[in-house]
Amino acid sequence: MNKQNVTVRKAVIPIAGLGTRHFPASHAVKKELFPIVGTDGIARALFHYHLLELDAAGIEEICIIVQPGEEQMVRDYLRGPGDAYLKRLEKYPALLREAGQMRGFEQRVTFAVQRQQEGYGHAVFQTKSFAAGEMVLLGLGDHLFRGTPSPYRELAGTVKISGGKSVSAVNRISADELKGYGTIAGARRPENPRLIDVSLIIEKPSVAVARAQLRVDGDPGTHAAETWLGWFGLHLLAPSIYEVLEQMIRDDVRDHGEFQLTRAQEIQRRREGYLALEMTAAERFDFGVPDDFVRSLQAFRGADLQRRPESH
Q1: What's the angle, vertex CA 212, arms to CA 206 and CA 213, rounded to 5?
Q2: In angstroms, how far is CA 273 from the centroid of its own chain?
Q3: Tens digit of pLDDT for each residue in 151-169?
Q4: CATH number (domain holding residue 41)
């Protein structure tokens, strides 16, 4: 197959979490449906921005991971209001166009159900039949990502040079942030220093472990200026990730009581190699906890990158 013709057609958005840290608001409405105002002044549900960016990146099919019974909630949102309400929107052309686009998304979305809360890896495994042997683009449901070029589009584009390996977006993190992210060691490719051949992946390492084991050639090495490369929140996953997750679930391989995706990614790396792409011109907005939500809400609305997602 001509590498230039290889594309990523499918993406996965997990929103099956309980949103415990946002209780009691998350008891009324899922956190991924909380309203987020974009740079254009339009208020959309958080997960809606993933659809916009994935559409702009050329993704054709989108699978949303939900809890039992939540499919209808998402479909109702995307179908939008009835005719009487749409009539009222005629005085707001931008919002009327938004409603039409949402209905188009509703036709392209499918669902995978996570019936037990058993970790991020367990949630991703529920999309095995959706992936159907293809590579999938995975994005954290309670984070948003933006940049020029689009990090969604850029990561999906690495399929042409990845040789079939998984590729994770990474960015620089500090010692204080290590406790929140999977972190890598590896070697940069001379012809493309942002592309890294990963030699180790550790989930939420201690500072001591990170200092000893998680260096990427060319990164700062002194304690005064030390940083590491950790998960950005977007992953391009090769189909074999599902085989790894299936084996972990069968053998009950858990970390802190859950089936972790990062553990599966490290196993996949040992078997077939793994790549990372450093994001140097992109932003991540974390809406996972209330204080981060407040900060990200303002930052996302006022970001300097004043653009709508490009069409494809």
Answers
A1: 85
A2: 21
A3: 999 999 999 999 999 999 9
A4: 3.90.550.10
125 band by pLDDT with thresholds 50, 70 and 90: very high
On the CB side of 20, CA atoms within 13 Å amount to 1
Q: Establish if 20 belongs to a structural domain.
A: yes
Domain hosting 215: range is 8-301
pTM for this structure?
A: 0.92
pLDDT at 307: 46
Cα dihedral across residues 166, 167, 172, 177: positive or negative? negative
Q: Could you read off the pLDDT of 79-99 as tens digits, one per residue?
A: 999 999 999 999 999 999 999
Domains held by the chain: number: 1
Q: Does a structural domain hold residue 309? A: no
Q: By three-state DSSP, how is residue 21 classified? A: helix
What is the C-alpha separation between 23 and 27, in angstroms, rounded?
6
Query: Mutual orientation of helices 240-251 and 261-272 as an angle, nearest 10°?
Result: 120
Amino acid occupying residue 179: K
Establish if 233 belongs to a structural domain: yes
